């Protein structure tokens, strides 16, 4: 087959199960853009900002469990995309970023948007840091033949892969004779002898003693197995914010969400129960917003860590942790098999019930604004329990309220960025969540975040079922309240109040203004049933403070350490 490199690459992407591409075009990627547009298997979403494209590709990849493409032109296209790409890498998405270099070395002509190999090289660091896991430069025809092998190997990784493919505009158009005929096959994992021994040990422990599972996003594929084992052995389960829904949060064995917004007391009681003998951590790096670092106090119990790249996480776990470098599903299957014949005695540990009363009305009618807890009740009732939507929550006060008060029964419905926490992630990434149109995606977004960056217009262009629920408090409230909680003097955090209903309408979405629970219920039901882009402007009570305690404490300790130096 004789076609140009751009088309050959797109054919390879199709073979790798890519179904969607998100980004912004430009002269240096014109042949790739055209080839993506002509593809019958890949749907192309032309976005309003390259980071919006990268956030959307990341969300599409994670929720659809396939690789996705992000594309951008050289120069500013690349630098604009970086925030979204870094988030994708930290979240374990599979994103293939396609862009251009203008020349290998500086041309000396100061040409427009000049981008050289040197500019790109620093974006991928050997220790696994940086923006990419791998960079592939295609400057001449022969460079292409490496792409397929590298891509197939990278996409086979289970813990995510963000690769940057940079082609000169010239090479994209060069004709090659090439067949992509190898079928992409995912590797199957087997447990090594060491892991097998540990699975027997943990199975015995689950049967004879009391253990708690602590599930992170990396355990999302093992939801059914985890549930089966936890229920069979009466073991409690905690999840990180990104792991919400992997174990049904309404189940009596669920002991709460750790990290930002967590119910500190419930988590403490669970992890320090005198009858507890082990904590089994799965698929989380237990970073600050996932754990508030409470794992550091687990001196008295055994601790196991199960997941890929366990060595990388070692530094964030108690020193006596047993590290089991394994695929979680495979490992839990082995535990389950070890337990098959055993009789399990009843547990002495009691379940803890949820504190938030969703039927109560928290808003004060006289104030003519809605209490954030009432927003949570309506989202729970309508978006989660009634319509099973994707619910994404933005950095800011939004993700503190939602971590604590929303309850999910299914994995991969709640989306949140606790590793990078970039404002704008979901104001943009909602497009990636809604792109398949299989279910409605709702973003709970601060006014500061939607003003920073959003992809409402892209959703309108493609008629996506995406709803921006704006928590309008006329300010950067997390910053304002954070200053106050730390006892610092107040600084300016105000944002002139915006009419986001009008803002949405001006872009082509449906707009709603809501000031109480009833109006929010009606607007949300209407917007979900309409299956079209909508912006709901919720005037919220800015004086209500979300459960920020742990975050403030970590901040305070950090400051004390710095002051002591
Ligand atoms: C890109 C980026 N810039 C800055 C921050 C720091 N930051 C975290 S929350 C926040 C305020 C968010 O304001 P808003 O979106 O209005 O939400 P609110 O806290 O008021 O609910 C800021 C500035 C960030 N997380 N990401």
Automatic annotation (TrEMBL):
<dbReference type="InterPro" id="IPR012000">
    <property type="entry name" value="Thiamin_PyroP_enz_cen_dom"/>
</dbReference>
<dbReference type="GO" id="GO:0003984">
    <property type="term" value="F:acetolactate synthase activity"/>
</dbReference>
<dbReference type="Pfam" id="PF02775">
    <property type="entry name" value="TPP_enzyme_C"/>
</dbReference>
<dbReference type="GO" id="GO:0009099">
    <property type="term" value="P:L-valine biosynthetic process"/>
</dbReference>
<feature type="domain" description="Thiamine pyrophosphate enzyme N-terminal TPP-binding">
    <location>
        <begin position="4"/>
        <end position="115"/>
    </location>
</feature>
<feature type="domain" description="Thiamine pyrophosphate enzyme TPP-binding">
    <location>
        <begin position="395"/>
        <end position="537"/>
    </location>
</feature>
<dbReference type="InterPro" id="IPR011766">
    <property type="entry name" value="TPP_enzyme_TPP-bd"/>
</dbReference>
<keyword id="KW-0808">Transferase</keyword>
<keyword id="KW-0786">Thiamine pyrophosphate</keyword>
<dbReference type="GO" id="GO:0005948">
    <property type="term" value="C:acetolactate synthase complex"/>
</dbReference>
<dbReference type="InterPro" id="IPR012001">
    <property type="entry name" value="Thiamin_PyroP_enz_TPP-bd_dom"/>
</dbReference>
<dbReference type="InterPro" id="IPR029035">
    <property type="entry name" value="DHS-like_NAD/FAD-binding_dom"/>
</dbReference>
<dbReference type="InterPro" id="IPR029061">
    <property type="entry name" value="THDP-binding"/>
</dbReference>
<dbReference type="GO" id="GO:0030976">
    <property type="term" value="F:thiamine pyrophosphate binding"/>
</dbReference>
<dbReference type="GO" id="GO:0050660">
    <property type="term" value="F:flavin adenine dinucleotide binding"/>
</dbReference>
<dbReference type="GO" id="GO:0000287">
    <property type="term" value="F:magnesium ion binding"/>
</dbReference>
<dbReference type="Pfam" id="PF00205">
    <property type="entry name" value="TPP_enzyme_M"/>
</dbReference>
<protein>
    <submittedName>
        <fullName>Putative Acetolactate synthase large subunit</fullName>
        <ecNumber>2.2.1.6</ecNumber>
    </submittedName>
</protein>
<dbReference type="Pfam" id="PF02776">
    <property type="entry name" value="TPP_enzyme_N"/>
</dbReference>
<dbReference type="GO" id="GO:0009097">
    <property type="term" value="P:isoleucine biosynthetic process"/>
</dbReference>
<feature type="domain" description="Thiamine pyrophosphate enzyme central">
    <location>
        <begin position="203"/>
        <end position="333"/>
    </location>
</feature>
<comment type="similarity">
    <text>Belongs to the TPP enzyme family.</text>
</comment>
<dbReference type="InterPro" id="IPR045229">
    <property type="entry name" value="TPP_enz"/>
</dbReference>
């Amino acid at each position: 087959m004789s076609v140009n490199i751009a088309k050959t690459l797109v054919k390879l992407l199709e073979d790798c199960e890519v179904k969607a591409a998100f980004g912004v075009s430009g002269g240096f990627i014109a042949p790739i853009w055209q080839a993506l547009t002509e593809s019958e298997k890949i749907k192309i979403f032309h976005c309003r900002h390259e980071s919006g494209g990268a956030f959307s590709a990341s969300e599409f990849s994670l929720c659809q469990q396939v690789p996705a493409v992000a594309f951008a032109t050289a120069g500013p296209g690349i630098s604009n995309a970086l925030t979204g790409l870094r988030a994708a890498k930290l979240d374990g998405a599979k994103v293939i970023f396609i862009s251009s270099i203008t020349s290998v070395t500086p041309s000396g002509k100061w040409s427009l948007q000049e981008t050289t190999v040197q500019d790109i090289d620093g974006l991928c660091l050997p220790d696994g840091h940086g923006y990419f896991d791998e960079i592939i430069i295609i400057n001449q025809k022969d460079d292409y033949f490496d792409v397929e092998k590298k891509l197939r190997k990278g996409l086979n990784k289970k813990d995510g892969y963000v690769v940057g493919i940079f082609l000169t505009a010239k090479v994209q158009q060069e004709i090659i004779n090439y067949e992509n005929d190898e079928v992409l096959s995912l590797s199957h994992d087997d447990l090594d002898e060491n892991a097998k021994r540990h699975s027997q040990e943990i199975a015995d422990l689950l049967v004879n003693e009391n253990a708690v599972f602590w599930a992170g996003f990396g355990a999302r594929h093992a939801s059914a197995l985890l549930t089966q084992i936890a229920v069979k052995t009466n073991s409690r389960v905690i999840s990180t914010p990104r792991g919400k829904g992997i174990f049904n949060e309404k189940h009596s064995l669920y002991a709460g969400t750790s990290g930002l917004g967590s119910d500190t007391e419930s988590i403490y009681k669970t992890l320090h129960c005198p009858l507890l003998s082990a904590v089994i951590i799965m698929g989380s790096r237990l970073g600050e917003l996932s754990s508030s670092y409470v794992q550091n106090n687990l001196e008295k119990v055994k601790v196991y860590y199960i997941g890929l790249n366990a060595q990388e996480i070692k530094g964030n776990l108690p020193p006596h942790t047993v590290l089991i470098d394994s695929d979680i599903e495979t490992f839990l299957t082995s535990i389950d098999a070890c337990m098959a014949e055993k009789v399990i005695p009843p547990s002495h540990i009691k379940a803890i019930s949820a504190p938030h009363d969703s039927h109560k009305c928290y808003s004060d009618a006289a104030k003519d604004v809605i209490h954030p807890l009432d927003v949570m009740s309506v989202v729970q009732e309508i978006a989660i329990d009634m319509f099973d939507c994707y619910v994404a929550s933005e950095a800011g006060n939004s993700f503190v309220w939602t971590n604590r008060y929303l309850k999910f029964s299914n994995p991969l419905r709640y989306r949140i960025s606790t590793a990078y926490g970039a404002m704008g992630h979901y104001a943009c990434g909602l497009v990636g969540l809604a792109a398949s149109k299989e279910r409605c995606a709702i973003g709970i977004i601060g006014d500061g975040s939607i003003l920073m960056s959003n992809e409402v217009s892209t959703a309108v262009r493609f008629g996506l079922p995406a709803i921006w629920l704006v928590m309008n408090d006329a300010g950067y409230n997390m910053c304002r309240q954070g200053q106050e909680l730390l006892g610092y003097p107040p600084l300016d955090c105000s944002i002139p109040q915006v009419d986001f209903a009008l803002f949405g309408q001006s872009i082509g979405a449906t707009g709603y203004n809501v000031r109480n629970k009833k109006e929010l219920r009606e607007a949300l039901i209407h917007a979900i049933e309409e299956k079209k882009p909508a912006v709901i402007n919720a005037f919220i009570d800015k004086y209500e403070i979300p459960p920020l305690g742990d975050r403030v404490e970590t901040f305070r300790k950090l400051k004390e350490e710095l002051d002591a130096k």
